[in-house]
Design a protein that fits this description.
Helices cover about 15% and strands about 55% of the residues. The chain has one helix and five strands. It starts with a strand and ends with a strand. About 10% of the residues are buried.
Length: about 70
């Protein structure tokens, strides 16, 4: 997993597709209880999809964006 903090209270994480379920459970246990949105981008030339999740922690006021790529 690769993380980047690009603004205060905003964190971006790139997650390997095999880890997305375990990472999602972990961040939920850490207080990220609200899935704000989920979107999919079709990367036609690469023949893959990029799935993006935006999850919010009310207690810490942090927005976490997780991205993974799937076949």
């Amino acid at each position: 997993m690769e993380c980047e903090i690009n603004r205060k209270r905003r964190v971006w994480a790139t997650v390997d597709k095999k880890d997305i379920i375990n990472i999602s459970k972990f961040v939920k246990d850490e207080g990220f209880k609200h899935l704000s949105s989920m979107s999919v981008t079709d990367l036609i030339k690469e023949k893959i999809y990029e799935v993006t999740y935006h999850v919010w922690s009310y207690s810490d006021s942090i927005l976490l964006t997780m991205q993974t790529r799937i076949d």
